[in-house]
Amino acid sequence: MLDTLDAAAVRRWCASGLAALKRHQGEIDELNVYPVPDGDTGTNLVLTLTSAQQALSMDLDTLPDSGSTAHGHALRLMAQGALLGARGNSGVILSQILRGFADAVVAVPAVRGRALAVALRAATVAAYTAVGRPVEGTLLTVVAAAATGAEQAGSDDLPAVARGAARAAAEALARTPEQLPALARAGVVDAGGRGLCVLLDALVEVLTGESATQIAPPPRTARPAATVARETGSEEYAYEVQFLLDASADAVTVLRRTLETLGDSLVVVGDGREPGGTWNVHVHVNDVGAAVEAGVAAGRPHRISVTRFADQPAPPAGPTEDGRAAVVVATGSGIAELFAAEGATVLPGNPSTGELLDAVRGTGAARVVVLPNDPNTEAVASAAAREAHRHGIKVSVVPTRSPVQALAALAVRDGTRRFEDDVIAMAEAAGACRYAEVCHASREALTVAGPCRPGDVLALVEGEVHLIGTDLTDTCAAVVDRMLGGGGELVTLLAGVDAPAGLTDAVRAHVARRWPFVEVQAYPGGQPFYPLLVGVE
């Protein structure tokens, strides 16, 4: 039984938490509101904490930073490793939780019960601060409950406070379906919150040698309507504004309130220096001037970046003579070859923050656009962009949601234009490209298109199930018909690694019969899970 959280306990907590996440990885991956086989929160948390453990293991003999304790230094290493290895939204938020935790106790001589409660509250503040418009029923709710549980313990008994935090977090997790309709409809609890509960349980085990008492998550039910859009900002706002800001914490508090009235997707993360520091500011707005003026009122904004989205933003091109580059996240050998042929630096799917940062720096360019091609990679890309700004590289993250949108954007690139104008032109091209994904259902569900069973063919348009079929070729042809019914001149087909021979030829022939004036381009994409990706411009 430990009465303080020392550096050795921090290292054991990281190792034990990683092992526990690996044990629960599949379970957490299954907490997915879509009946498609791409839920990966558990995998992302495992990879994020793996990076944290690597950071700790590589610095066993490093002396603490000036002014920090040994346990504070270990926690900061853990947080920094998590940030650079963060994957997915849950991984990025977890890295902020660890950073807030570390900052709260870095100079505390001994971390006992009340200090743990303070650290969990600071972790909660850091997590909520990093998200512009927090949504309850998520990882944020669970970490806040953990902090409240620790505070209500009202003790300096470290194991007792840790137990209280873990118990409160588990109870909050069980209530998440009551707070977020998407979870209730899908019959699941929040995946990120479940991962945090696993980490808190691991902390209890390290401190006490005993397993934490858990509140079992509610049983899965038959999945109802998959109507929730994948994580992204509202299409109501047309511009992404990013800048670094030298300002005091009080001024940033006012800035946040102002930016919240102007747009969404607000993220403001500081470097932790007091009383003043440098802050990374990100927001989606329609009034760019008002957002920049708010920054001027708060302090000294610099490295200002503005990207126009045009509904669904798009990306710039590969390296050019004037110091520009594009980094594209691509899953599938064929898709990677297409982007490489356009001069882009290609990174395999689901990269960490550190891997994206290395790719950006590896281009040698001063202006880089990152194309995540997946909503879950956007948060990782934004974290990498913030880190890149520290190295003097101007990075714009354009939240493309499908490789076909990135292909449309790269097709109109022009290195003779101003960088900002080129980004806008490519964003408009990507926004004009509607996309669809065809896959097989991995579980029984009730979608907006009706009930589906494992093995059924699902056609998702812009992330929402539109068609359910039994024959792959027929369903692919039907979804192309549906998309062309809204207009279109060019269809792009990317065949997946498991696509049957002749699939794209059959769809091409169908389009030639039904839509004789539409051009079709087909490529072997090699992507997993989705036998066919479709783009219509």
From TrEMBL:
Superkingdom, natural source: Bacteria
Pfam families the record matches: Dak2 (PF02734), FakA-like_C (PF13684), FakA-like_M (PF21645)
Occurrences of domain DhaL (ranges): 8-205
One GO-annotated biological process of the protein: glycerol metabolic process
GO molecular function: glycerone kinase activity
Transmembrane domains' residue ranges: none
PANTHER family: DEGV DOMAIN-CONTAINING PROTEIN DR_1986-RELATED, PHOSPHATASE PROTEIN
Name of this chain's protein: DAK2 domain fusion protein YloV
Organism: Micromonospora lupini str. Lupac 08
